[in-house]
Design goal:
Chain lengths: ~240, ~260
């Protein structure tokens, strides 16, 4: 990873718009191979303003999921600069990155990532447990999000007792329970049929209208229409 | 040894780790009754490795849900480690489940934004009251479980940074970290290629040799051969119960067609 003088990082953050939530500058990721380096991402420069709903599209292997992992601070093995809310992510250590991501980012996964042996309410509580939220506050927030998502009647059910669409609803509820400023969604409707997919996308649109910034990876043109901007990746490059 | 369903049902065996007598499960949707389990009698002894197989719709996933206390029976008697568990309230079922049962699911169910360590630790944090673990004991169990599956060098990685086979090893570590009385595996190789599938089966076999009791649902006869006993379900009943003489020996007897 590049080490940059803090002055430089400071200068950079003043040159980009102060309203930027995410700012990537020349982000690259490569794997060393016997024949040199294989690039997964090339010179990615991208700003996302608060309130945007950005779609990342491109063929398989284009680097979409890698980009999402870097944005989500799950992958720090890249070169270039990543500034999130004026914090230089590229210069943070793992603990700092984790703390920053936990505070501000919610994840939605294609496979839902629910624990089958925990009830809906317990699954919703997971991110709060890892943020050190106290017990009564956890219970209050879980009750609140169950109410907002019309799932009060399902709180004691287990994931396998729910349809795929309902499971993803729980997945999204879990992502928003920490009140993140950014939601990252990786093919969130990839396992759903079209009616369920529409329901999920409309939910994202409502969350976005209420102020949450969203970056989604999708193959679906229909899903992309819910966003305000689309980025196309090909072989690791952002297409103009 | 192959037995068809016995004509006289033995009384519940108090020494069995699992003892099921006359288990029935009926689902009612839109006023239609579906009999998922018609009448299941099953004993599992401590230290057994049992494969549960059968065609889709035979009731094997329902049986695993009931074995794992994720679902209640409609009728019948289920004793787990000597405790009658068929009539427990959902909260009591959850308590017994959290202490006694470790789950390994087809989809791994690892949470993508938690590290390997945190994923393994997670179920332990849901133990409350008498079963609550202090932080030092929790840490010991997490590290011990990751060592048992050969993943202790990846504690700070995220699931997406691991191969499918490694993710499944972490899922196995999560299941064993609670030191459960029994491991329940639902198609644990379903999302893996054959090489990784074999590796997971070998891992389960190692755990079994170390004393773990395992019940595994699989539709794949190759994987059933890793177990030392095969239970075949059809139409919500056990129609065949075969104990293998040697590990990975070909299945004795062909499946019963009813």
């Amino acid at each position: 990873m590049l080490s940059r003088p803090s002055q430089d990082a400071h200068a950079r953050s003043t040159t980009s718009s102060p309203t930027t939530l995410v700012s990537l500058r020349n982000v690259e990721k490569s794997h060393r191979t016997s024949g040199g380096a294989t690039y997964v991402l090339r010179r990615i420069t991208l700003d996302v303003a608060p309130g945007e709903f950005v779609t990342v599209m491109g063929p398989s292997g284009a680097g979409k999921s890698t980009l999402l992992s870097i944005l989500g601070m799950l992958d720090a093995d890249f070169t270039g600069e990543y500034v999130f809310r004026d914090r230089p992510v590229h210069a943070l250590n793992q603990e700092q990155r984790r703390a920053l991501a936990r505070e501000h980012i919610g994840f939605v996964f294609q496979q839902y990532h629910l624990l089958d042996e925990l009830t809906v309410a317990e699954n919703l509580s997971v991110p709060l447990d890892y943020r050190g939220v106290g017990k009564s506050e956890r219970a209050a927030r879980v009750a609140d999000v169950l109410d907002r998502f019309n799932m009060v009647g399902k709180k004691d059910l287990y994931p396998r007792q729910l349809s795929g669409g309902q499971q993803q609803l729980v997945g999204i509820a879990r992502a928003v329970i920490g009140e993140p400023s950014l939601i990252l969604a990786d093919e969130p409707t990839g396992n759903l049929h079209s009616a369920q997919a529409r329901e999920i996308m409309e939910l994202f649109a409502r969350l976005n209208a209420a102020g949450t910034t969203i970056v989604q990876v999708t193959h679906s043109d229909e899903n992309a229409r819910y966003g305000n901007r689309t980025i196309n990746l090909k072989d690791g490059w952002m297409e103009p | 040894m192959t037995t068809s369903a016995p004509s006289i049902i033995a009384p519940s065996d108090a020494d069995s780790l699992i003892s099921m007598r006359g288990i029935k499960k009926v689902f009612i949707t839109d006023e239609v009754e579906t009999h998922a389990l018609t009448e299941v009698h099953l004993d599992v002894q401590q230290g057994e490795f049992v494969a549960i197989s059968g065609p889709s719709g035979c009731g094997k996933t329902t049986l695993l849900s009931i074995l794992g206390l994720l679902d209640a029976t409609t009728d019948g008697e289920y004793r787990l480690a000597g405790e009658a568990v068929s009539d427990l309230s959902p909260a009591e079922r959850a308590r017994v489940r959290n202490r006694q049962i470790g789950f390994i699911f087809q989809a791994f169910n690892l949470i993508g934004d938690l590290t390997v360590y945190e994923n393994v630790e997670l179920p332990l944090t849901y133990r409350t009251g008498d079963a609550a673990l202090d932080p030092a004991e929790r840490k010991r169990r997490v590290i011990d479980a990751l060592e048992r599956v050969g993943m202790s060098h990846r504690t700070n990685h995220y699931p997406a940074q691991l191969s499918g086979g490694q993710q499944q090893r972490v899922a196995v570590a999560r299941a064993v970290a609670g030191e459960p009385a029994i491991l329940l595996a639902d198609e644990p190789t379903g999302n893996l290629d054959s090489q990784n599938g074999e590796a997971v089966m070998q891992l389960l076999q190692e755990l079994h040799k170390g004393g773990a009791t395992i019940c595994m649902v699989t539709h794949d006869p190759r994987y059933a051969e890793y177990a030392d006993r095969s239970v075949h379900l059809f139409d919500g009943r056990v129609v065949e119960d075969t104990t293998h003489e040697g590990k990975r020996s070909a299945r004795a007897g062909s499946p019963v067609t009813v």
